[in-house]
Amino acid sequence: LLTSKESINRFIQIQKNPEKLNDNLFLRQTLLDFIADFANWDNSTISEYLETSRAITKVAHESLGGVIGTRPMINDPFSGGGAMPLEALRVGADAFASDLNPIAVLLNKIALEFVPKYRSTISTEVKKWGDWVKKRATVELSKFYPDEKDGSTVIGYLWARTIICEGPGCGVIVPIIKNFSISNRKDAEAAILISYNKTKLETYVVTGTNANKIHGGTSKRSSVTCPLCGFTTARIRVEKQSNEKGFGFQLLAVCARKKNGKRIYRQPDENDLKILMDADKELIKWSKKIFNGLTAFPIDELPYLRSIFNVRVYGIDQWHKLFHRRQLLSAIVFTNITREAIDNINKQYSDKELAMAIAQCLSLSVSNAFQYQCNIATYLTEGIKSAFIQGQSLHMKMDFIEANPLMEELAGSYAYSLSQHISGLDYLSSFQTHCGVAQQVSALKSVLPEDSIDLLATDPPYYDVVPYADCSDFFYVWLRRMLSSTTVFSTKDELTPKDDEIVQLAERNEKYRKRTKNWFENKMCEALSVARINVKPAGIAVIVFAHKETTAWEALLQSVLDAGWIVTGSWPIDTETGTRLRAQGSAVLSSSIHLVCRPRENPDGSVRVNDIGDWRDVLAELPKRIHEWMPRLAEEGVVGADAIFACLGPALEIFSRYSRVEK
């Protein structure tokens, strides 16, 4: 099973001479080689690797003073998606995951508690009920998403928002299209052609090689140029129109897939428009209904966050406005059917915890599909892309795709979301691990005994980069409607809690003006102080952070120091892909910096307060330490901004060993 040459060679040496393991350096290298091999994704569920890793974890814990037969305790107070607590369980440790965000807790409950307890039973039941939801939804929605006359399956409908040209004496409707080209794949070329019959807008789908002759679009940098008179309406005027009058919408094309897999594009016809009118009538009926005190669709406020949530600039001020009319109808139907399924699940299963696990997984598979089924999802390189294609943000897309939610397992469909979810559950159940614990609690509050944690492993908020709670509201507003009959979410909580969220958003929105750099620094210090008290005096912490601005690093590092931690090292680990849209042309880090810390405590757990350093001594030692570190980073291929921030650990190791440094 060994995959690296180093591991194989070392194993051969051990076979020939078992005494080699008495050499501490050789033993250390052997263990590191094992970790490197185990980090290979292909080895992540192989039982021999799992068993070996758990044996090493047990021996290490007991060798460091742990009670015989116990496991080391790992804590992540900013658990988010739960990657670190899950890895802790996988290698044989105990894990306590907590987060302020209810969706994060829901995810962690499934991964850390439900799946280890029920194993493959969950994925089997989720598939059964997921198919039930799909079947019911198909009955209700198929008339609004019909197949083509030749049996081809509709993948989606391509739309563009429209404005009124403000050119002198013009006033025609102009579709806002970034690129007229739909597909340049050989034998499937397609593009949009715009023309005007006097002043009436007409759009056509051009296919074949002629489509390659159509270039450009009507929109550039959010301004819009009229194809008829050539006048360019500035972005600020586009924003004003969208807020005062609202956008218009133009159906541009229908995209379908033949049985042989070939994509075809056609002109929308009268039947397409009639179906849209029928969907509008059905939506009006749903808009008047109330379920468990909640409206059928979310009318909760969608905030403006400068350069992150810019959809608000264009009048999208409520969450339901992220969905075009037929999309909104589809979301309501899926939500309502899922709610019915959950009621049936609660009646049929005597094991209420299992019923809860199935209900939560089912609702997640539905809500996850909505990021592909909203009016800022896009169609790129013949694929449907999520609303979050640019990372944890909601940016306006003037032309978008309305995905067919009833397709079979193509990105954008419910079936695809369900299959991905089940695949994840199967992967989790393959670990065959013990259960962890997940709770909804703020990192500012302590719910663990003092000196009970062996390792704090956490990925805290990245300052001002991600509005975690606001992003999760995209899913939360629908999840709480699906789970309204359960105790998972309170129906009184319109949106996820944000009062104690440790982020810097003061510059993004006046509403968050108290969340300044000082707010972030003070609250992060408070959270890391709570964590340090819970970590054993001889324990350790790994704090992950990534940001391109020194201001953010200053805030985090000051929090780490003030909370009573000594930084003993920092390692950049590649965690980001350079091909993601957010990274292209941006000065973002390709690595996350992993800060290694120890509590600045005495053996009895009290904080060391009398270690006073001399600034001259610190300055004298810094260059030597950095110069030792830089060649090592260069050998590992760490360069640029990554190398600069990777030097923070060695520098702070000298500075943070003191309770204070004086001139």
Mean pLDDT: 91
Count of DSSP H/I helices? 17
How far is the N terminus from the C terminus?
Answer: 57 Å
Shape summary: globular
- Structural class, by secondary structure, is alpha+beta
Strand content: 15-25%
Q: Please mark out the parts with pLDDT under 50 across 5 or more consecutive residues, or reply none.
A: 579-588
Helix amount, in percent? 25-40%
Describe this structure in words.
The protein has 17 helices and 24 strands. The strands form 7 sheets. A 7-stranded mixed β-sheet has the order 18-2-1-19-20-22-21, sandwiched between helices. Strands 3, 4, 11, 12 and 17 form a 5-stranded antiparallel β-sheet that branches. Strands 5-6-7 form a 3-stranded antiparallel β-sheet, with no helix packed on it. The relative contact order is 0.10.
Short summary of the structure?
By secondary structure, the chain is of the alpha+beta class. It contains 17 helices and 24 strands.
Break the fold down into its secondary structure elements and pairings.
Blueprint: H1 5-16, H2 24-38, H3 47-63, E1 73-76, H4 83-90, E2 94-99, H5 102-118, H6 120-141, E3 153-164, E4 173-175, E5 181-183, E6 190-197, E7 200-207, E8 219-220, E9 223-225, E10 232-233, H7 235-244, E11 248-257, E12 263-266, H8 270-286, E13 290-291, E14 294-295, H9 325-348, H10 352-369, E15 378-380, E16 383-385, E17 399-403, H11 414-429, E18 437-440, E19 453-458, H12 468-482, H13 517-534, E20 535-545, H14 550-562, E21 565-574, E22 591-599, E23 612-614, H15 615-635, H16 640-646, H17 648-656, E24 660-662
Parallel strand pairs: 1-2, 1-19, 2-18, 19-20, 23-24
Antiparallel strand pairs: 3-4, 3-11, 3-17, 5-6, 6-7, 8-9, 9-10, 11-12, 13-14, 15-16, 20-22, 21-22
Helix pairs in contact: 1-2, 5-10, 6-9, 6-10, 6-11, 8-9, 9-10, 9-12, 10-11, 10-12, 13-14, 15-17
